[in-house]
Amino acid sequence: MAKKTSEKSKAPAQQENDKTNQLESFVADSSGQFMTTNHGLKINDDQNSLKAGDRGATLLEDFILREKITHFDHERIPERIVHARGSAAHGTFKVYEDMSEWTKAAFLCDPGAETPVFVRFSTVAGSRGSSDLARDVRGFAVKFYTQEGNFDLVGNNMPVFFIQDAIKFPDLIHAVKPEPDNEMPQAASAHDTFWDFISQMPESSHMVMWAMSDRALPRSYRMMEGFGVHTFRFVNTEGVASFVKFHWKPLLGVHSVAWDEAQNISGKDPDFHRRDLWDAIEAGAFPEWELGVQIVPEADEFKFEFDLLDPTKLIPEELVPVQRIGKMTLNRNPENFFSETEQVAFHVGHIVPGIDFTNDPLLQGRLFSYTDTQLIRLGGPNFHEIPINRPVVPVANNQRDGYMRQTINRGKTSYGPNAIANNDPQQAKAAEGGFVSYNERIDAKKIRARSRSFFDHFSQARLFFNSQSDPEKNHITDALSFELGKVKSVAIRERMLAVLAQIDKGLAGEVAYALGLHIPKIALEDLNNSIPADGDRAEYASTNPKGSLATSDALSMAHTVKDTIKTRKIAILAADGVNEKSLSSVKDALIAEGAVVHIIAPKLGEIISEENKKISVDESLLTAASVLYDAVYVPAGGNSVATLEAEADAIHFLNEAFKHCKAIAADEGALQVLESTYFFKKLPADYEEETVLREGIIVGDHASSLTKTFIKMIGMHRFWERENPRKIPA
Ligand code: HDD
After folding, report:
1. Is 111:96 a contact under the CB 8 Å cutoff?
2. Backbone phi, then psi, for 373, in 5-degree steps?
3. Looking at 83, 255, 384, 475, which residue is catalytic?
4. CB 161 within 8 A of CB 362
5. Residue with the nearest Cα to atom 7 of ligand 1?
6. Which residue's CA is the closest to the ligand 1 atom numbered 29?
């Protein structure tokens, strides 16, 4: 079991105060126990309420009924205003090398220390019950339970944000959430209010490019990058500070699904990402990320074309490489969704000595919001006492009372200074680990304004677009055409086209074509940020410099890890009469490489092979769908092949897998099945062995190189290049 593996690997001292053991003391297990009321009274009958006679009215006296119904009536808490839909897991983090040159954060200075973590992934806009596959930003929130208190890295799977100042956050969220009159659409940005807002917020341009890219459609939470977004500060023991951007790099690479596929998955399995994370951890295939940092010495603060404090900008990895400094492994699923995943409270303001804030105006506003929101969501100021939120180190202060207080504070004093209790609890000196804010010099006028260094709203949007592969660019064009196609107002569509024209005229032209519109001639000054300061809009004029970097490889998923099939889901289509060797040899080889293989047949139960062997079926063509798999294989066997060839659902399965650019393999004895598909006649005439890796389709002898090539193809994830030239109806 996953749980045992993670516990076994820990040193005994670590086990004593780590998070898993702390949580264990709160776990309730009712096996072998009598059922009781919440006050411990054994219940004799939980099937019938107390009545006046067996057909009589229910009596108010029935305290057992009342307790049960009252608790039930109050079981829901408000969902998060954003990031309501989420899934989480426990794990550990270890730094590779001592980082004390840059930071005194103890968990980053001791390669021997294993820090427990709890990580929650989420979508932003949808409600708790919405689909995992919405086109959306993904939250990537990590709680490190360090020996100096909790450090929360509350990031996203995209390195920038829509807005530069937190005062615009409620507007952004009101615009993207379902429209207030009819509560539509759910978990989607493809509607008028979102694009109305965005088209008047040129500062969103960069983030919009990310959100319209395939990054918004991850294949798995395990295959997403994470980013702290803001520039933070590292501070070392000498008090020397440097700027730092945090990254999470998934060891499985960064991969996405296609938009059409995402929409289908939303119907076939709206829990797709949740299930994927859960299943991988249960199977012991623990997801891993490396923590990366981009460090900029303070002296270099003004060395860049953009402002380090502007959260709509990233630092290109070409300018400041990402150093991989540690690894996070998720190795245990929560015991209880509500108590852990729902009640966890992250806060961007939970930092530890050695890490500090910058004056990024988005970060500064977040510092207020996260505690405030828990007061309503978790019902009061004691949410830090909920088991999942407790630090692993002792908590001692003079805060007292409040709803649902759990701690029984001993003694008379809840103030300081006090003489009665010798001034306990005491303040810690910096040398004793007391937190001291970075001594930043600030000499400024109090003013509502934005720095001119924030006004370049387009050059990094263009850098992102130009860095994409051709298929990725096509997907962005299609995504914008889809989203703006759902917008009813022509004026909003046109304004957005004018914004896109500032990023890339070709892109704007293609989207305009799809919308049946022309790009309007709107001057850059008129695309101003819509915050009028003293009515003087010119103060907020966007600028659009060229930008010195043409492309950045790190921004395209085309350059990601493509050499593993671990945890990939492969479908084998088969029916009675399948050739056992043709099926098993490929299946076994895939499993040996860490893939998950399902046999899909016309009906559930078993199929009988040519050799009269029973093979159990995992899914039927009715319960399965190609969108839930990464690749598909058709084994040989006369009757099986004849059945599949005549089975519309099997042919649809293959056509759809082709449409979504997945690897497809067939034993040469099953060629007939492929010949019945749409895509087969679309393959190039010169199609043969050498073109296999371009097209992602292989027909061969299961006993020769077929399996090896198929494994290589699956590792490549998708064959996006074939998407446009070989479009098929499916
Ligand atoms: Fe936020 C939740 C990430 C800007 C206000 N945010 C929340 C979560 C993530 C982020 C991952 C979910 C945490 C969880 O799983 O419980 N938020 C971000 C990032 C931002 C950002 C990366 C920009 C860089 N957020 C942001 C701003 C504000 C908020 C500017 C308000 C001024 N965020 C919240 C919140 C939430 C939240 C309302 C909702 C639930 C919660 O906090 O606990 O306070």
Report:
1. yes
2. -70, -30
3. 83
4. yes
5. 83
6. 366
pLDDT for the residue 12: 46
Q: Is 722 annotated as a binding residue?
A: no
CB of 141 shorter than 6 A to ligand 1 = yes
370 annotated among ligand-binding-site residues: yes
Instruction: Please identify, by atom number, the ligand 1 atom nearest to the C-alpha of residue 88.
Output: 15
Q: Within this chain, do residues 314 and 359 fall inside the same structural domain, yes or no?
A: yes
> Is 82 close to ligand 1, i.e. is its CB under 6 Å away?
yes
Residue-range definition of the domain harbouring residue 253? 86-163+217-389
Those residues with Cβ within 8 angstroms of residue 539's Cβ, 6 or more apart along the chain or in another chain: 449, 533
Tell me, yes or no, whether 370 and 312 share the same domain.
Answer: yes
**pLDDT over threshold 90, residue 81:** yes
**Do 636 and 672 have their domain in common?**
yes
Give the total residue count for the chain: 730
Cα(697)–Cα(693) distance, integer angstroms: 7
Q: What is the helix (H) or strand (E) element at residue 700, kind and residue range?
A: strand 697-700
Long-range CB pairs of 604-612, under 8 A, 24+ apart, other chains included: 607/574, 607/575, 607/576, 607/578, 607/640, 608/576, 608/577, 609/577, 609/578, 609/579, 609/580, 609/583, 609/637, 610/577, 610/578, 610/579, 610/580, 610/637, 610/638, 610/639, 610/640, 611/579, 611/580
List Cβ neighbours of 486 (8 Å cut-off, separation of 6 or more): 185, 188, 190, 191
DSSP 357: -
CATH code for position 63: 4.10.91.20
Query: pLDDT of 663-704, one tens digit each?
Result: 999 999 999 999 999 998 888 776 665 567 678 999 999 888
CA atoms within 13 A on the CB side of 281: 25
Condensed to tens digits (0 to 9), the pLDDT of residues 458-470 reads: 999 999 999 999 9
366 appears as a binding residue in the annotation: yes
- In Å, how far are 497, 564, 578, 587, 708 from 592, measured between CA atoms? 50, 12, 22, 9, 12
Q: What is the pTM of this model?
A: 0.96
Preceding peptide of 417 cis, ω within 30°: yes
Pull the structure tokens for residue 351: 């930092």
Half-sphere exposure (Cβ direction) of 536: Cα atoms closer than 13 Å: 6
Query: Is 83 among the catalytic positions?
Result: yes
Q: Is 169 in the pocket of ligand 1 (CB under 6 A)?
A: yes
